[in-house]
Amino acid sequence: MNSSTSWRPSEIIIHSQVRDDPATIFFLQQSPDVPVKYIDSGISTAVVAASEILAGCGSGMLDKVIAGKRVVFIAPATQAVDQFTMPDDRMLCPHFDRLKLASNGCFYQCDWCYLKLTYRANQPYITIRVQHDEIKRQIQKRLRESALPIMFNSGELADSLSLEHLTGAMRAFIPFFGQSGNGYLFLLTKSDNVDCILDLPHNGHSIVTWSMNNEDVSRKYEIGAPSFERRIEAAYKVQQAGYPLRVRIDPVVPFDGWQSAYAGTVARIFQKIAPDRITLGTLRFEEGFYKMRRSIFTTGRELPQMMKKIMPMFEPMIIRGSKKPKVGKYSYTEDKRVEIFDFMIREIRKHSGCTIALCKESANVWNQLGMDLSQCRCVCQYDHADMRR
User: Within a domain: residue 372?
Assistant: First the structure.
């Protein structure tokens, strides 16, 4: 058993409505020595109140973030499918459908993960949704509503594969999408937990994307996640099994000597695998995340110190969609982002003609780089561009 399949929670809380669900039973069979509690409510306050681990952790934000990763709540399949539209009108992002098999669904402690802000206070625990047959009905209903193929993103609120040894979710949904006609499953992961999906009949309808970064960056700031090399090896296995393969390099971090380091990262990717798309991104923070940067990073002072060093390069991006403008995200200045993206694109082009896109970027940055936004093909899209401006 490797480290990716050895992780178990320290506490399991189960909604009584799903105690006999096959996926619940499977999860418990994989976690035979973990304490279990049953509750009759799915509201977050009830889950937190039932958790001895959350009750016993410290009062600090980081205490909750770390403790919550040890607690799993197994929940009904309520609203497991919904649609995402980027709320910030200056940062363009494809509209996409989310498949919420899990929320806060990852046991890694990556320092820049926005889920820390999203779930930090009321729902710091990992939520796993079962009732797979009901989720499939929700997917089929959504497919009937659309004349176009739909990609369902399972990696927006979770790592799509890190918990697979406990949930069996991809073993249920990859074959389902393989027979779905116009439905496609998008997996986003840092995990190397792939052996269990290699022989599944995917029919090209499950697209697996790895989030990759420079080895030093991964080791320092993506705590608990498999190394860059382990991700590369896992991606190679999946591509050999015939799955469409994509890569996301996000965030690109401009530390001292970043150009030569990331040139090596890009070269290593193409030595081993051949992704058909790559999406690039830079560090960006919600306003609340930025304000709490000293209290929720697992690496202690290291990332806050790095941020302090690069803060002169950051500026707020303003949301103008409401009556009163407010800060949306903190990001590098536009000039710095263009510099980073220009370098990365040139490095990728030394090895491949694959499609390149930018994650949650402005039209102006796309234009400065000579990229045609109308032809955007992000890793999380099927083939048609659906950009909300």
Answer: yes
Q: pTM here?
A: 0.90
Q: How many domains does the chain have?
A: 1
Q: Is residue 328 part of a domain?
A: yes
DSSP codes joined into one string, 13-80? EEEGGGTT-HHHHHHHHH-TTS-EEEES--SHHHHHHH-HHHHHS-SSHHHHHHHHTTEEEEE--TT-
Place of tokens 């048609």: 384
Assign residue 375 the CATH number of its domain: 3.80.30.30
Tell me how crowded residue 119 is: count the other CB atoms within 10 A of its CB: 21
The Cα 43–Cα 306 span in angstroms is 38
- Give me the sheet containing 36-39, strands edge to edge: 36-39, 11-15, 71-75, 126-129, 102-103
Considering the domain boundaries, does residue 44 fall inside one?
A: no
Torsion of CA 253, 259, 260, 266, to 10 degrees: 70
What CA–CA distance (Å, rounded) separates 232 from 228? 6
User: For a pLDDT cut of 90, what percent of the chain falls above it?
Assistant: 64
> Which phi and psi (to 5°) does residue 295 adopt?
-110, -10
What distance in Å separates the CA atoms of residue 355 and residue 280, rounded to the nearest whole number?
11
Residue 147 belongs to domain spanning: 78-101+131-388
pLDDT bracket for residue 158 (50, 70, 90): very high
**Taking all residues of the chain, what is their mean pLDDT, rounded to a whole number?**
87
Tell me, yes or no, whether 204 lies in a domain: yes
pLDDT digits (tens, 9 = 90+) for 11-49: 999 999 999 999 999 999 999 999 999 999 999 999 999
Per-residue model confidence as pLDDT tens digits over 175-234: 999 999 899 999 999 999 999 999 999 999 999 999 999 999 999 889 899 999 999 999
* Pick from 54, 114, 47, 108: nearest CA to 74: 47
